[in-house]
Design a protein that fits this description.
By secondary structure, the chain is of the alpha+beta class. It has helices at residues 2-26, 32-38, 70-73, 75-106, 109-112, 122-194, 198-203, 214-219, 269-274, 287-296, 372-375; strands at 42-45, 57-60, 226-230, 239-244, 252-258, 276-277, 283-284, 299-307, 312-322, 331-333, 336-338, 388-389, 407-408, 426-435. Strands 3, 4, 5, 6, 7, 8, 9, 10, 11 and 14 form a ten-stranded antiparallel beta sheet that branches. Bound molecules: calcium ion. Residues 205-437 form the Fibrinogen C-terminal domain.
Length: 440
């Protein structure tokens, strides 16, 4: 390029020279004098030339200096600048190429494992990538949700396990205490038979024995139905209970009694928790105490009922356990036997087994639209709502309206329609428990 430019420049100079030569020829005659001084160009024949014939002529040019316009002086500068610009362009071009190469390298799937689309498809590719990311985020958030649910389930399991372990430990301690009691009793027996001071020892009150329930009092010979102090769980304080020492051999710890309506059974959660009433008349022993009694030993449940016609029937369940307050005093009952009918397992839809305790102020029932305890005026292991309710209101005769009296759904004729819509009630009700393996 450089050479070509110089050639161009030279051509231009020669052309200018040619123009000047022509111009000089045209003005020779007019400006002869001037021409002689300013531009001594001579035209002369070469050698001798005869007249009438064509003679050769020659032009002699003196050394020529052409005054070019000032701008021409900058041509070289311009060429230099052009040259510089060209170099700059070349270097920019090169660095651009390097840059592109680098960009290509970074898109190389072999380097980062990601296949990027060509620049032409970038818009669409970006959209796709955004969609991909969006679906990934959605997936992650749903995973997170699942994980949270799993954690909740596991937490529930953990709580259950803790509870089971606690119960196991408590049972273990209880059994150890029972063994120790047995050893102490036998030692006491040995001592009293060998010691000379027999009378003194025998007269000493036996305070170290733990009576867990009424069957223990029966075992040591107590035969009168009375209140006794029991300690079903050595870690908890002892309390009074009423013992039935007559029914079916005796040894029963009574947890509920209805006789005459002297005690109101429409009570709060707290009342049912600690118990209320008079142990010798009408009462609810208390859910905490019932829990302690039923967790210490395998218990059976007996329910005795008597209507106003003097009919007495009973129901027996070969297992009875009431969970702690944390588990809302959930009821666990075994198989039925007896004469009053299995009202606690009345049907698939009315089943009190495995139900939580509900009171008018604490709704744990399976009736979604309301509180069965409030509607039926009692605390009970309501389903949705009931086929039995031994804590209902005490009616001294037949009653009308809501069936909120003492109720046992399998009682003969109890659900039959009576004239005037009257409902029958019970004169007496009693609930009591005894260790399953107790032999009176
Ligand atoms: Ca409810």
């Amino acid at each position: 390029m450089k050479l070509a430019n110089w050639w161009g420049l030279s051509s231009a100079v020669l052309a200018a020279y040619g123009v000047l030569v022509v111009a000089n020829n045209e003005t020779e005659e007019v400006k002869d004098e001037m021409a002689k001084d300013a531009c001594p160009v001579r035209l002369e024949s070469r050698g001798k030339c005869e007249e009438g014939s064509e003679c050769p002529y020659q032009v002699s040019l003196p050394p020529l200096t052409i005054q070019l316009p000032k701008q021409f002086g900058r041509i070289e500068e311009v060429f230099k600048e052009v040259q510089n610009l060209k170099e700059m362009v070349n270097s920019l071009k090169k660095s651009c190429q390097d840059c592109k190469l680098q960009a290509d390298d970074s898109r190389d799937p072999g380097r980062n494992g990601r296949l990027l689309p060509s620049p032409g498809a970038l818009g669409e590719a970006d959209d796709n990538r955004v969609r991909e990311l969006e679906s990934e985020v959605n997936k992650l958030s749903s995973d997170l949700k699942n994980a949270k649910e799993e954690i909740d389930v596991l937490q529930g399991r953990l709580e259950k396990l803790n509870l089971v372990n606690m119960n196991n430990i408590e049972n273990y301690v209880d059994s150890k205490v029972a063994n120790l009691t047995f050893v102490v009793n036998s030692l006491d027996g040995k001592c009293s038979s060998k010691c000379p001071n027999q009378e003194e020892i025998q007269s000493r009150p036996v305070q170290h024995l733990i009576y867990k329930d009424c069957s223990d009092y029966y075992t040591i010979g107590k035969r009168s139905s009375e209140t006794y102090r029991v300690t079903p769980d050595p870690k908890n304080s002892s309390f009074e209970v009423y013992c039935d020492m007559e029914t079916m051999g005796g040894g029963w710890t009574v947890l509920q009694a209805r006789l005459d309506g002297s005690t109101n059974f429409t009570r709060t959660w707290q009342d049912y928790k600690v118990g209320f009433g008079n142990l010798r008349r009408e009462f609810w022993l208390g859910n905490d105490k019932i829990h302690l009694l039923t967790k210490s030993k395998e218990m059976i449940l007996r329910i005795d009922l008597e209507d106003f016609n003097g009919v007495k029937l009973y129901a027996l369940y070969d297992q009875f356990y009431v969970a702690n307050e944390f588990l809302k005093y959930r009821l666990h009952i075994g198989n039925y036997n007896g004469t009053a009918g299995d009202a606690l397992h009345f049907s698939k839809h009315y089943n009190h087994d495995l139900k939580y305790f509900t009171t008018p102020d604490r709704d744990n029932d399976r009736y979604p639209s309301g509180n069965c305890g409030l509607y039926y005026s009692s605390g009970w292991w309501f389903d949705a709502c009931l086929s039995a309710n031994l804590n209902g209101k005490y009616y001294h005769q037949k009653y009308r309206g809501v069936r909120n009296g003492i109720f046992w759904g399998t009682w003969p004729g109890i659900t039959e329609a009576h004239p005037g819509g009257y409902k029958s009630s019970f004169k007496e009700a009693k609930m009591m428990m005894r260790p399953k393996h107790f032999k009176p």
